[in-house]
């Protein structure tokens, strides 16, 4: 079974370890982003929530415990956090869990164990979610890959389906163009404007047959979905 294409954010101040982790994750088909200090890493995690956050405990300025606590307070969703540290005392691990960490790995560690833990965390996070995403009359079944709107089955090209799924999982947040391109093609996007044709095809299937437009362009920012049902009072 192929590995999931995870987006992993690593907050780690050791440059050599960052380089090693980048090579490790790339070898497994993961997309990884890096921050060298707690404050910039926290901003990155809040702006574009990763599938898994690998968080060093001993960071300059804002340490890993503070980052973890602030992320749990400010994030609009649960981001799985794996704490990565040289501290192996029980008290340190307990403090990490109390701060909101989901898992803990002590340095030095085996790369394959880190990869396995990241996959397990991402799947655990999704385990409590229903496999059907519902936004107004739009229903996206992540298990069967079928999409219905107002009870009608939508015929979608695979890339259009992937765009719609990304927007639905981010809803009601707006996804930037760069986030969508990265989600779909990683670091090797097609030439020219890779989204134009696929967004056009998605609009033809998702919006053209219906009275209300769900796929919205946020000019200068990106794209988002808007429910086609009026909010209940």
Layout of secondary structure:
Blueprint (H helix, E strand, L loop, with lengths): L6 E5 L3 H13 L3 E5 L2 H10 L4 E5 L7 H11 L6 E5 L4 H10 L3 E4 L4 H17 L4 E4 L2 E4 L4 E4 L2 E2 L4 H13 L4 E2 H9 L10 H11 L8 E4 L3 E4 L8
Helix pairs in contact: 2-3, 6-8
Structure description:
Helix 2 runs parallel beside helix 3 (64-74). The radius of gyration is 19 Å and the shape is elongated. The protein has helices spanning 15-27, 38-47, 64-74, 90-99, 111-127, 158-170, 177-185, 196-206, and strands spanning 7-11, 31-35, 52-56, 81-85, 103-106, 132-135, 138-141, 146-149, 152-153, 175-176, 215-218, 222-225. Strands 2-1-3-4-5 form a five-stranded parallel beta sheet, with helices on both faces. Strands 6-7-8-9 form a four-stranded antiparallel beta sheet, with helices on one face. A three-stranded antiparallel beta sheet has the order 10-12-11. The chain has 233 residues and is of the alpha/beta class.
In short:
By secondary structure, the chain is α/β, with parallel strands linked by helices. The chain contains eight helices and twelve strands. It has two domains: 7-127, Rossmann fold; 132-225, Orthogonal Bundle (Arc Repressor Mutant, subunit A).
């Amino acid at each position: 079974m192929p590995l999931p294409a995870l987006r992993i954010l690593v907050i780690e101040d050791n440059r050599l370890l960052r380089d090693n982790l980048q090579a490790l994750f790339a070898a497994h088909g993961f997309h990884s982003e890096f921050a060298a200090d707690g404050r910039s890493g926290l901003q990155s995690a809040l702006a574009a929530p990763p599938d898994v956050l690998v968080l060093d405990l001993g960071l300059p300025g804002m340490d890993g415990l503070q980052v973890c606590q602030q992320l749990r307070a400010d994030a609009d969703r649960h981001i799985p956090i794996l704490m990565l540290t040289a501290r192996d005392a029980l008290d340190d691990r307990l403090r990490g869990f109390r701060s909101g960490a989901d898992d803990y790995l002590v340095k030095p560690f085996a790369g394959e164990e880190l990869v396995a833990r990241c996959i397990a965390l991402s799947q655990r996070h999704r385990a409590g979610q229903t496999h059907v995403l519902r936004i107004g009359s739009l229903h996206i079944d992540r298990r069967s890959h079928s999409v219905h709107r107002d009870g009608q089955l939508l015929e979608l090209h695979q890339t259009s389906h992937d765009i719609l799924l990304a927007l639905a999982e981010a809803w009601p947040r707006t996804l930037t163009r760069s986030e969508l391109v990265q989600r779909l093609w990683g670091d090797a996007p097609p030439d020219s404007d890779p989204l134009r044709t696929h967004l056009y095809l998605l609009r033809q299937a998702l919006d053209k047959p219906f009275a209300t437009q769900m796929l919205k362009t946020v000019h200068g920012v990106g794209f988002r979905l808007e429910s086609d049902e009026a909010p209940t009072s």
